[in-house]
C-alpha cells in the first residue's frame, strides 16, 4: 500500500486526486494540505510514502515545503512528487534541487500519475518528458549552481563515474547491468555507494548532483 499526502491549494484538485487514488488498488490517501506549511506538518504527522506537492501555494510554497520535508531526518522515507501547471524550467530544476523525486505537469493523464507514484515509491526518479538536457545544461552548468563538496567528487572511482553517467542518462539498474555486463545487484550496489559518497537522497537528486559536480555533462549522457 502506497500512502499518499495531497498538497494543493485548490480543494477541487485535491478532491479529484483523492477520488482517483481511492478507486485504485494499492493507494491510501492519508491526508491533505492546502499550503506548504500544512504539507510539512502533515508529512511529519502521517509520514506518508509520497507527498504530491503543488508548486505555487499561499504562504510557504511547494519548493520550500519540499526542502523542509527532504531535510527532515524523520522523513527520510518520504518522497515528494511535484505536480504543477507551470511548465517552467526553473521550477523543474529547483524542485529537483530541493529534493523532489519526480516532476509532472497537472495535465498528465490519470494513468500516468498513477504510474509516476508507483515509480517514485519504488525509489526510482521520475521526470516529465518536458524535462530535457537543455534544462540541465542551462541551469546546472552555471558555476554558481555547484553546491557539492569537491572532496566527495575525489572519492568517486572510475567505475562509479561510468555508472553515474549511465544513471544520468536515464538508465535503470537492469539497463546499467546489461550495458556493463554485470549483475543487477552489482549495479545497484554501485549506485548506492555513489549516492552515499555524494550525499544524494535518491536517484533524482543523484542526477542533479552529478551534473552540478561536473562528474557528468550533458554530452556524456546522450
Index terms:
11 helices; Rossmann fold; globular; 222 residues; alpha/beta; six-stranded parallel β-sheet
What does this 3D model show about the protein?
50% of the residues lie in helices and 13% in strands. It is of the alpha/beta class. It has two domains: 2-131, Response regulator (Rossmann fold), CATH 3.40.50; 140-217, Rossmann fold, CATH 3.40.50. Strands 2-1-3-4-5-6 form a six-stranded parallel sheet, with helices on both faces. Strand 5, helix 5 (110-121) and strand 6 (126-127) form a beta-alpha-beta unit.
| CATH architecture annotation of the largest domain | 3-Layer(aba) Sandwich
Which assembly state applies to the chains in this document?
A: single chain
Percent strand equals 5-15%
The value of Rg in angstroms is 17 Å
The total domain count is 2
Give the CATH superfamily of the largest domain. Response regulator
Task: Please render the helix and strand layout as text.
Blueprint: E1 2-7, H1 11-22, E2 27-33, H2 36-46, E3 50-53, H3 62-71, E4 79-84, H4 89-97, E5 102-105, H5 110-121, E6 126-127, H6 133-140, H7 150-154, H8 158-168, H9 173-180, H10 184-198, H11 203-213
Parallel strand pairs: 1-2, 1-3, 3-4, 4-5, 5-6
Helix pairs in contact: 2-3, 4-6, 8-10, 8-11, 9-10, 10-11
